[in-house]
Write a structure and sequence with these properties.
The structure is a single chain. Helices cover 32% and strands 10% of the residues. The chain has four helices and two strands. It is globular and about 35 Å long. The N and C termini lie far apart (45 Å). It holds the Pfam family SACS. This is Sacsin/Nov domain-containing protein.
Length: 121
């Protein structure tokens, strides 16, 4: 690498890679997501991977208005809803990971809870 170019070479290296339309990729994941309790197990596993000490689910029975929606098709999604919460801190790395949807980056940490609720250690 030519050292006289300095920052230009680093920018090329950082920007290199395949790009995927994030909205399209999320849509594909949701369409192909298996039915059943898989999504709940995934939420629990994500909370555990993030180091959360609390995980809560809340059934929100409210139904919200539809007048201000961008599309009338969104009306069906205005409630009720199942809300998920965990107390882990969302980091800069987490924000960066969102742009890499579909790329597994699971950290294995002995002693953490498995999806089944049994200890991995």
């Amino acid at each position: 690498m030519d050292s006289s170019r300095g920052g230009a070479d680093l920018m090329l290296l950082e920007d290199f890679g395949q790009r995927v339309d994030l909205t399209r990729r999320i849509r594909e994941i949701l369409v192909n997501y298996p039915e059943g309790t898989t999504v709940l197990k995934e939420l629990i596993q994500n909370a555990d991977d993030a180091g959360a000490t609390k995980f809560c689910l809340c059934l929100d029975r409210r139904i919200h208005g539809v007048k201000s929606l961008l599309s009338s098709k969104l009306g069906q999604w205005q409630g009720p809803a199942l809300l998920a919460y965990n107390d882990a801190i969302f980091t800069e790395e987490d924000f960066a990971s969102i742009s890499r949807v579909g790329i597994a980056r699971r950290r294995v940490r002995p002693g953490r809870l498995a999806v089944s609720g049994e200890s991995c250690s």
